[in-house]
Amino acid sequence: MGVPIGEDLSNPPVSQAPGYSRRLVTVFRAGTPRIIMKVIEPANRFFQDVRGVVVTIELILVAVVLGIGLMTWMSSMRDAVSSELSDLGGMVQDVNQSYVVLGASGASASTAGMDYLDQTDHCDDPDDIAGQADNCMRFDAPPTNENVGVSRDGLVVELAFDGDANDSASDNDATLLNGASIVNGELVFDGVDDFATIENSDEINTELHEERTIHIEFTPNDVTTRQVIYEEGGGVRGLNIFIENGMLFIGGYNIPETGWNPTFISTPITAGQPLSATLVLDGGSGLQPNAFSGFLNGSLIGRDVGSELFPHGGGIGIGGVNGDTVLNSGVTTAGSFFNGSISGIQIYNRALSDAEVGSL
Questions:
Q1: Given phi > 0 = left and psi -120 to 50 = alpha, else beta, which region is 37?
Q2: Nearest one of 304, 305, 290, 199 to 259, comparing CA atoms
Q3: Where are the domains positioned within the chain?
Q4: In the predicted model, is pLDDT for residue 171 greater than 80?
Q5: What whole-number distance in Å separates Cα of residue 299 and Cα of residue 296?
Q6: What region, left, alpha or beta, does residue 213 occupy, with left being phi > 0 and alpha being psi -120 to 50 degrees?
Q7: At 48, is the secondary structure helix, strand, or coil?
Q8: What is d(CA 257, CA 278) in angstroms, rounded to the nearest whole number?
C-alpha cells in the first residue's frame, strides 16, 4: 500500500490493514526514498546489462548463421565449377575431327594432354595403326615472313617500301634513280637502268664490322643474266647478293687486312617466284671457318670461311652496282641491273642465328 505524497507518517490513521507493523513504518519514516533508490537502481542496471548480453548473443548467432550459409554457397559453387571443368576436359579428350597444326593437316585426331594424336580415318587401310600410317595426312609449307621471335637489336636498315623508301630502323633512306618506282609495296626495277642507293654510313659500311646480317625479299623476272640485287663496298672489301645463269650468289671478301678472298655461296632459283636471300657474317680478327653463311627462304644453303669486314666506302647499291663490286667473274663496275621487284630489306649489325633467319 503506497503512502500519499505529503502525508504525515508521524500520525498514521487508525484504520490500517491488519498486521500493520509499526517497526516497518518506522523504517519508512526514517528514509523511504533513499532505501527505494538503493534497491531500484542496481536492479535497473542489472536488467540493462542482461538485455545487452542477450542482444549481443543474438547478433553473434546471426553472424554465425550467415557465415555458415556463405561457406555452404561457396562450397556449392566450387563443386559446380569443378563439374563444369571436368565436363570440358572430357569433351576435349573426346575430340575427333580434322586438324591443321604447323603445316600438317589430317582428317581425324584425338588429344593426349597438350598434344594431338593422329587417328585412323577413311583414308587408311583397316590394319593401319593410328599415328603411324596415315594416308590422309598432308604437309604444307609453314608460314613465312612473320618475324616471330627476332629481336630488333642491331637493326640498322629496314625498308618496307610502304609508299616510300624511308628507313624505319634508322636514317638510312634509299634514293630511287632512273625510274625505279614503288608499286603496291614493292620497289620495281626494269632491268635496263633502274636502281637505288643508300648513303655511306658508319652503321653500314664506313666502320669496321665483325657481324652482319642482310635479308632481302625479292621476285626476279629473269634469272639468266647477271643482276645485282644488293652490294656494298668496292674492289677489295665488300658484300653482295646477285643472280646469274639461274643461280643465286651470296658473296663476301676482305682481301687486304685478313686475306679473305672473294667467297660465294650459291643455289639454283626460278624466275617469277617470291624469294628471300639472307647473308650472315659472324667473323673475327682473322679468317675463321663457317663464319660466312647463306640462306634461301630461311633455309641454309651453305657456310664458308669469313672474317671481320674493314671500312669499305665504295658505295651501296640496290638493284644494280653503285661504283664497283667483286662478283664470281671478277670486279664489276656499274650496270648489272636487276629485273624484278624487292619487297623488303633488313640489315642487322649482328649475326642472326639460324632459327632467327628462319623466322624472318
A1: alpha
A2: 305
A3: 20-91, 99-139, 155-359
A4: yes
A5: 5
A6: beta
A7: helix
A8: 25
- pLDDT digit string, tens, across residues 266-318: 999 999 999 999 999 999 999 999 999 999 999 999 999 999 999 998 899 99
Euclidean distance between CA atoms 316 and 322, whole angstroms? 6
Residue 118 has pLDDT above 80, yes or no: no
How far is the C-alpha of 239 from the C-alpha of 306, rounded, in Å?
11
3-state secondary structure of 197: strand
276, 297 Cβ separation under 8 angstroms: yes
Query: Cell digits for 279?
Result: 647473308
Residue identified by cell 642487322 is 348
Distance in angstroms (rounded) separating the CA atoms of residues 155 and 167: 11
Mean pLDDT of the chain, nearest integer: 81
Asked if 330 contacts 235 with a C-beta cutoff of 8 angstroms, the reply is: no
Q: Which three cell numbers stand for residue 66?
A: 550467415
pLDDT tens for each residue of 85-115: 766 666 555 555 555 555 566 555 555 444 5
Fold (CATH) for 155-359 = Jelly Rolls (2.60.120)
Contact 121, 131 (CB under 8 A): no
User: What is the pLDDT at residue 52?
Assistant: 62
CA dist., res. 311 & res. 285, Å (int): 14
* Cα(257)–Cα(263) distance, integer angstroms: 15
pLDDT tens sequence across 203-253: 999 999 999 999 999 999 999 999 999 999 999 999 999 999 999 999 999
